[in-house]
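Progress narrative, Year 2. Work on Hydrolase from Marivirga lumbricoides advanced from sequence curation to structure prediction during this period.
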Amino acid sequence: MSTEEENYIPEITNDLRSKIIYIPEEINEASGINIFGRTLKSFIFSTDVAIIRNNNADAIFSVYPFTPQPAITQALILAADAPIFCGVGGGITGGNRVLDIARDAEFQGASGVVVNQPTQNDIIEKLKKVIEIPIIWTISSIEEPIQPKLDAGVDIINVSGGRETSNILRRIRENHEHLPIIATGGRNDDRIIETIEAGANAITYTPPSSAELLRRIMRAHRAGETLDFSKGFKK
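Result:
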């Protein structure tokens, strides 16, 4: 039996479920992070329930630039058919509200919570006492001390440093060889590979928006063309 035959993976799909957003295959090169018995390599970054429902990512990463609300968290969790990690504040939202939102997210079925870079250590310590799911802390600069956050209870680091993401990863890995790290992978395949090689265990992928996908479909309709959905939607 050839290597190709040994690695063959049977695939079951249908017309309805083939029209989805596919995660770049390069993300499969990541080691992944084992959370509650599941190895997660790809996280799709979205709060759009239609996109959350129609993708092949291992997990959902839902963070939005407003004060977290239980109604929004509930809608996101209900839409997801994969583990979902919800933003609970830490930046413009702080104090006991972060604890309440995080506790509510856990009760509704979230697999983890995400807090922003400005989150104070005492809030993380309190979070660790009231929830049993992982705490993910997002950083965008290497200047932010990491060890105090780990000591406070952070389980996973999420690096979102734009063009500096790979450099931040390399710096972190100098002192934290086995720390679970998620990172943004950029908009092309080469950047994804670079991010993984720099030390990311898992990658967040920002998909095209629903508006962009609709523009593509309508553009094709106006041109009298038929879109090929055999490999789903891609950037």
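The domain at 28-208 is CATH 3.20.20.70 (TIM Barrel). The mean pLDDT is 89.
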